[in-house]
């Protein structure tokens, strides 16, 4: 068996230790004689899995008691609708559009009310984060929305926008658990888990309790009402049991490895290796403003499409896979999430140096 270094943006690499543990427990979870995949979501064993997962996440992120943690299906994209359906009491919301995912969320919200685009970086292919210190926040806005780390373009908000007292809602799909966060700054902080936490098929939404009400937009389905899931402890219907189990294992792995502060340090170190090389390379260069660079998603180009394609192909043959950039940006993108070891980034940079020598 040979494992590759997988730079996919998502679904993405998982800690090898976690995969091995899951493999060991595949046929017999903890003496139950069955796999977690075969287990009732109402069983005592699963109840323990979901409760432990939630508590470990609360510990890692220091989530205050007045926030609910929901394990939901429908991916991050379903939140693009759930957020306005549950929060748009005045039918007004302000969106900061810094990439495709923020744009999709903004477009979806337009179905439910007045969704204002109060800032955007689309003029320069989303290669920077706009100044958000003094935005024209709508007086009656129900919330201000951001996508905190832009997976496709490789930018990240280093500072949260000044929402002038309005509730902040953030999609953190691609920077979830990559560094410590102050949950109290957000009304909702949510993300699909397939980028930086677990397998595909689930989104975790951390929501301040006062935002979870029965007062949702008319016609909102039961399943798309936060209160349904909050009241039932994410067990209103059958949840994605196996995904919750896998995420729980990753939470334990994060705790064992020093938590989010240690993760941040490791992620900064990994990203610096790649960015430092990009800054000195004569062949490759990064595509976004330095001050806004993501620690998780690193897009880069040679400026020559054929050379980019050659690089991606040769890298794959060398066991460095999924480096092709998003179709809207081109070039390459290395996603270096929590589970990507330092050695993976070192191997990538060594390969890039060799490629540069051969193709200069
Ligand atoms: C991948 C991604 C999404 C979409 O996630 P799905 O689970 O496929 O719906 C949304 N937002 C961000 C920031 C992402 O990276």
TrEMBL record:
Q: Which of UniProt's keywords are assigned here? A: Amino-acid biosynthesis, Aminotransferase, Cytoplasm, Pyridoxal phosphate, Serine biosynthesis, Transferase
Give GO BP annotations, semicolon-separated: L-serine biosynthetic process
GO molecular function terms noted in the UniProt entry: O-phospho-L-serine:2-oxoglutarate aminotransferase activity; pyridoxal phosphate binding
Which domain of life, per UniProt?
A: Bacteria
Q: Which EC number applies? A: 2.6.1.52
| Family annotation (SUPFAM superfamilies) | PLP-dependent transferases (SSF53383)
Which sites bind pyridoxal 5'-phosphate? 76-77, 101, 151, 171, 194, 237-238
Q: Where in the cell is it found?
A: Cytoplasm
> Cofactor comment in the record?
Binds 1 pyridoxal phosphate per subunit.
Catalytic activity reported: O-phospho-L-serine + 2-oxoglutarate = 3-phosphooxypyruvate + L-glutamate; 4-(phosphooxy)-L-threonine + 2-oxoglutarate = (R)-3-hydroxy-2-oxo-4-phosphooxybutanoate + L-glutamate
| Keyword Glycosyltransferase applies | no
The record's similarity note reads: Belongs to the class-V pyridoxal-phosphate-dependent aminotransferase family. SerC subfamily.
Q: What is this protein called?
A: Phosphoserine aminotransferase
Native species: Fusicatenibacter faecihominis
